[in-house]
Amino acid sequence: PQETRVAIVENGAVQELHIERALERGLVGNVYLGKVARVLPGMQSAFIDVGLERAAFLHVADIWEERHGSEPDRPIEQILHESQSLMVQVIKDPIGTKGARLSTQASLAGRLLVYLPQDSHIGISQRIEDEAEREQLRERLQHLLPEGHGGGFIIRTMAETASEREMAADIEYLTKLWRDLGTRSSALPAPTLAYQDLNLAQRVLR
């Protein structure tokens, strides 16, 4: 009851084994409304309180707005200050005495697409190698995006055989998820969990 195990088998051989325990569920993909606990100019990093046992870690290189803004070389002490609220996503689970690693760039995974709300780029899974097919998928997605749509997408391998209706449903699901997350987080006090990724069994199915 306390543990889920998933083995992925291809041609009769186990390729991947995933184990998730109720007490040690991974945090990667979770979005938190965090609060800056300490800024460390020497390390160009900050500790962010996200409500976990240990403060999480954010490096200046993972502050998305700065890397893509008008002044990409600003030091962290000019970007963040203590007690500031910040929406962050976990990109690496805590290990040993190290807290979770964070990024301010959100990405939300669907079955066919990954949504990048702050980006405008359309990327395609590297597993799809045929250049003509990549171009065709990119055009199909752009054709489905609503007028004035914000954000970018990564097209997953699964999208190769998907219908336009399925792709449109994924776009709608992911953009609504991000909208709801924004509405919810504006009403929440920091630190708090704003969005939790699916459990292991559901992630594997996705």
The largest β sheet comes out as: 6 strands, antiparallel
**How many strands?**
12
* Percentage of β-strand residues: 25-35%
Q: Structural class of the helices, strands and pairings?
A: alpha+beta
Arithmetic mean of pLDDT: 91
- Oligomeric state of the chains present here: single chain
Summarize the amount of helix as a percent range: 10-25%
Global outline: globular
Kindly list the characteristics that best describe this protein.
single chain; 206 residues; alpha+beta; four-stranded mixed sheet; 4 helices; 23% helix; globular
What does this protein look like?
The protein is α+β, with helices and mostly antiparallel strands and 206 residues long. It contains 4 helices and 12 strands, in the order E-E-E-E-E-H-E-E-E-E-E-H-E-H-E-H. It has helices at residues 64-67, 131-144, 164-186, 200-205; strands at residues 3-10, 13-21, 31-40, 45-49, 56-59, 85-92, 101-103, 108-109, 113-116, 122-124, 152-155, 192-195. The strands form 3 sheets. Strands 3, 4, 5, 6, 7 and 12 form a 6-stranded antiparallel β-sheet that branches. Strands 8-9-11-10 form a 4-stranded mixed β-sheet, covered by helices on one side. Strand 1 (3-10) and strand 2 (13-21) form a beta hairpin. The longest helix is centred in the C-terminal third of the chain and has 23 residues, at 164-186. The model has no long low-confidence stretch (mean pLDDT 91).
